[in-house]
Amino acid sequence: MTRGKPKPAPFNPERKCLVTGEVSPKRGLIRFVTGPDDMVYPDLASKLPGRGMYVSAERAVLEEAVKKRLFSRGAKKQVGVPDGLVNAVEAALAKRCTDRLGMARKAGRAVAGFEKVKDWLDKDQCRILLQASDGSERGKSKLYKPGGRGSFFDILTADELGLSFGRERVIHAALAAGRLAEDFRDDAVRLSGVRISEQAADGPSMDTAAAEPPATDVAKGPRTEYGDDDDAGKVKTT
């Protein structure tokens, strides 16, 4: 009997944050590019052409990049930063989350409403539990949170959740396991870092440490470039 070959480890490219200097998986960073007008634009889907500049998906880090004009250093030339860039990143991430949730609903991979969500939890069909950030804490406490990495988020408002389900407001929603759930999770993790929430003073609204691998400290290692030429290469060292 022929032994099967072990599955290769998933390719998880890393990039260096322009501000902190830490190397992290790309899914936890925000990519920026410089347009023909020498203005900086966020590229959340990592599809725009040009040299990519990466910043950790944390609001304070993004604000520091703007305040200290670090995008010019990353671009190796003087570039402009549009007003409200950080807020624009937050809004775009929220839209990606609601769009992905809407796609999951249409595919039958997401449900909304207390009873439907509770049924999925009881049947172990819920991969990610979503609860409105502005929903009643008493009502939200009646549903238990599923285990696992990045299995609970309360970063979207009831109105935003409602957009995904064609309703005015939604407090409880659930996502089934699958690619749509994982794609949603990656964007939701980034939104968790960028969005200012009422829970910020008490800690993150989900287990970010468990959802994201720890960043690699390369401060004492080889010098690493801050960007990439075509977003297809690996971290470069010299």
Verbal overview:
- Helix content is 33%, strand content 15%.
- With 238 residues, it is of the alpha+beta class.
- Strands 4-3-5-10 form a 4-stranded antiparallel sheet. Strands 6-9-7-8 form a 4-stranded mixed sheet, sandwiched between helices. A two-stranded antiparallel sheet has the order 1-2.
- The chain is elongated, with a radius of gyration of 19 Å.
- Mean pLDDT is 83; it is low at 199-238.
What order do the helices and strands come in, and which of them pair?
Layout: E1 14-16, E2 23-25, E3 29-34, E4 40-42, E5 52-56, H1 59-67, H2 70-75, H3 85-106, E6 110-112, H4 114-122, E7 128-131, H5 137-140, E8 152-153, H6 158-165, E9 172-175, H7 179-194, H8 208-211, E10 227-228
Parallel strand pairs: 7-8
Antiparallel strand pairs: 1-2, 3-4, 3-5, 5-10, 6-9, 7-9
Helix pairs in contact: 3-6, 3-7
Largest sheet: 4 strands, antiparallel
Task: Name the poorly predicted regions.
Answer: 199-238
Q: Could you tell me the number of beta strands?
A: 10
- By DSSP (H or I, 4+ residues per run), the number of helices equals 8
Indicate the structural class.
alpha+beta
Termini distance? 46 Å
Mean pLDDT: 83
Strand order in the sheet with the most strands: 4-3-5-10
Strand content: 5-15%
- Order of helix and strand elements from N to C terminus: EEEEEHHHEHEHEHEHHE
Overall 3D geometry?
elongated
Please describe the structure with a list of short key phrases separated by commas or semicolons:
alpha+beta; 33% helix; 4-stranded mixed sheet; 238 residues; 8 helices; disordered C terminus; 4-stranded antiparallel sheet
